Amino acid sequence: MNQVLSGKDELGRGSLLVTLDGTRLEIDPMEADLPGGSAQARFLYHPSGASLDLDLAAKVEEFDYGVLARRIDPESDIGGRISLDVALTAQGDSPAALLTN
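Predicted structure:
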């Protein structure tokens, strides 16, 4: 994982692996470690013939978003934690159909 720096301050690090095989686009894994916590995700987009597959998963546990708000504005009093666990799978014959299915 590489680091993101602001002067001498470490803002975080992250990595992702992107694979394109024909029409299949995959991002797996995607990882971010920030001062407020960490997140992991994966994504698949695969059009094949008349079918289109989409798969998305993301997990964030107890992320302190106040850390990022204070990096933008040190006087900010914004704070709190957010957790997220998403798993989405969709199939259709077009991008618009993915949203309805």
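Summary: The longest helix spans residues 66-72.
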